[in-house]
Design brief:
about 280 residues; globular
Length: about 280
């Protein structure tokens, strides 16, 4: 946590900012965000069912489905938890951490930026922050809702924005976890689409791009946190631009895939004109 806290200074310490905003707008914001955060599986189930609406007519399941991406995110995410264990600011620097917390400051005041050190914690609190899987799942839900109705698209956008606010505002994640979760989700989504429709050069490039950015995030959080905190106007935009590059690459590549998969409209046959009767 100390490493991510120091690195997160390059992003402006968003957990502290959103945490104070949620406290200032409580209890309405707390109730709404808590409902969204807890009911993410229900929202995913509704989008998944919507994707199956043509199964009876087409007599086949869709090749690429939200549930597949959700499951792979849930399978791969815990492996990263073991490599990069983080409990989150509400535990490491807030009242939820009890005697194990380094300080009881979240979200009222930022801890002093100093050289990060390994931080022992209790054996109960899960180290499940890096990357933010709630963010990754919300991103996957948002992506899959894009092909739904207008109401479905609005709901997907609302769920994504609210989930980001909840993960930060409740102190469960740092900003560094959030952008890592976005890259993690889009990389897995690209791999799942490539598996469903066949690997091509664009799919391989996208997965390699996402994997490289995600790995660079983890390495920089661990080995360059002080440099990142000391030069936030350099590293902050770099982190955002790296995330945006993966988002842009995914949107561009997915647009090409959708254009290839779209059926070519066939001209409607014109009815034959009746021949004139001979006089």
């Amino acid at each position: 946590d100390q490493y991510v806290l120091v690195a997160d200074h390059a992003l402006g310490d968003p957990s502290w900012l959103v945490g104070r905003l949620v406290d200032a707008t409580a209890p309405v914001s707390v109730h709404v965000l808590d409902l969204v955060y807890v009911q993410l599986p229900l929202a995913a189930a509704l989008v998944g069912l919507y994707q199956l609406r043509h199964v009876v007519v087409e007599r086949r399941f869709p090749g690429h489905h939200l549930v597949r991406t959700f499951l792979v995110i849930g399978l791969l995410g815990p492996a990263v938890y073991m490599v990069f264990p983080v409990v989150g600011p509400v535990y490491a620097y807030g009242a939820e951490g009890g005697q194990w917390a380094a300080a009881h400051l979240w979200p009222d005041a930022l801890p002093s930026i100093s050289t990060p050190q390994p931080m022992p914690f209790d054996g109960i609190t899960p180290r499940n922050c890096m990357p933010s899987l709630h963010t990754a799942w919300a991103v996957a839900l948002f992506v899959h809702s894009r092909k739904g109705s207008r109401a479905m698209r609005y709901a997907g956008t609302f769920w994504l924005v609210s989930t980001l606010c909840a993960t930060l505002g409740f102190g469960y994640h740092y900003g560094a976890d959030i952008i890592a979760g976005v890259v993690f989700a889009l990389t897995i989504e690209a791999a799942m689409r490539s598996l469903a429709h066949g690997w091509d050069r664009s799919g391989v490039r996208l997965v390699v791009h996402g994997t490289a950015v995600f790995t660079a995030f983890l390495l920089s959080y661990r080995y360059l946190p002080e440099e990142m905190a000391g030069h936030p106007w350099v590293f902050g935009p770099l982190l955002v631009l790296a995330t945006a590059s993966v988002v842009h690459h995914y949107v561009r590549t997915a647009g090409r895939w959708d254009a290839k998969a779209a059926p070519t409209p066939q001209p409607e046959p014109h009815p034959a004109q009746p021949r004139p009767e001979p006089v």
